[in-house]
Amino acid sequence: MINPQHSNTVSSAVHLNVYVQGEGFPILCLHGHPGSGSSLSVFTNHLSKRFQTLAPDLRGYGKSRCDINFDMRDHLTDLEALINSFGVKKCLILGWSLGGILAMELALRLPQQVSGLILVATAARPRGNHPPVTWQDNLYTGVASLLSYIKSDWSWNIETFGKRSLLRYLIQQHTPTAYGYIAKDALSAYLQTSASATRALYSAIGAGYNRLRDLEQIQCPCLVLAGACDRHITADASLETSRYLKNCQLHCYPNTAHLFPWEIPDQVLSDIDCWLEKNQQVISV
């Protein structure tokens, strides 16, 4: 997905829109595709009570507009410039899906500045088993998301559209909590994801990506979180990644899928808090 070679093709950094919350040790929070910095609120609203969270809209996402073609490596250029612009000497990185891949790449690129990694529904050799998407899947997903925006706990919408849409692959627990996050954080992020961002991602996927052998270079503590029923990046792929990381703890949550932080937010945040408590060095300057 991100070839470390041919670095001379990387463009100059662009200014990223960033959501900044809290004060203290910096945690860089990176979203997936489609996504935006605000779609990480399940993490940032909690972590910003003790730390400073920096949640950028990646290039081509959210308010970081970019309508020209770019390469996935350009995200790393942007993020390194962002870290330096905030004067960050050390930071913890939390990455969800695509954001997790970028987090690992930054740890390889900036080993002295990255103190730890929280990798959510991601992998260094990502593999999925998602069924083909039909027109009805897309239609029902749009309807379910719009109706959730109006009333997230509307059981009729969940049963009629939600469970028959693409959401059936993204979540396993069709609760008002999950649909509340989908309505608040997913719908707007999807609508603001540019065609150039989509092209960059799918071009990279087509080229293949495997950084497993390079993970031994990452010395910082890592926490890998996975949903057992994830169809986008399988739990097996996340487990494989955890085995290549030297200092890693893994949690795989049953009956959850790719959006598991929205399915079981309390459990996920509790596990992150426990890991931070056991690995104080990741939040020490």
What can you tell me about this protein's structure?
This protein is α/β, with parallel strands linked by helices. It folds into 2 domains: 7-130 and 194-283, 3-Layer(aba) Sandwich (Rossmann fold); 135-189, no CATH class. Helices cover 40% and strands 14% of the residues. The chain contains 11 helices and 7 strands. It has a 7-stranded mixed beta sheet, sandwiched between helices. α4 (135-150) crosses α7 (176-191).
The CATH class of the largest domain turns out to be Alpha Beta
Mean pLDDT: 90
Got a strand count? 7
CATH architecture field of the largest domain: 3-Layer(aba) Sandwich
Q: Let me know the CATH homologous superfamily of the largest domain.
A: Alpha/Beta hydrolase fold, catalytic domain
> How many individual helices?
11
Strand content range: 5-15%
- Reading side by side through the largest sheet, how are the strands ordered? 1-3-2-4-5-6-7
What is the overall shape? globular
Largest sheet: 7 strands, mixed
What is the element string, with H for helices and E for strands?
Answer: EEHEHEHEHHHHHEHEHH
Helix content: 40-55%
Total discrete domains? 2
CATH topology of the largest domain: Rossmann fold
- SSE-based structural type: alpha/beta
C-alpha Rg (nearest Å): 18 Å
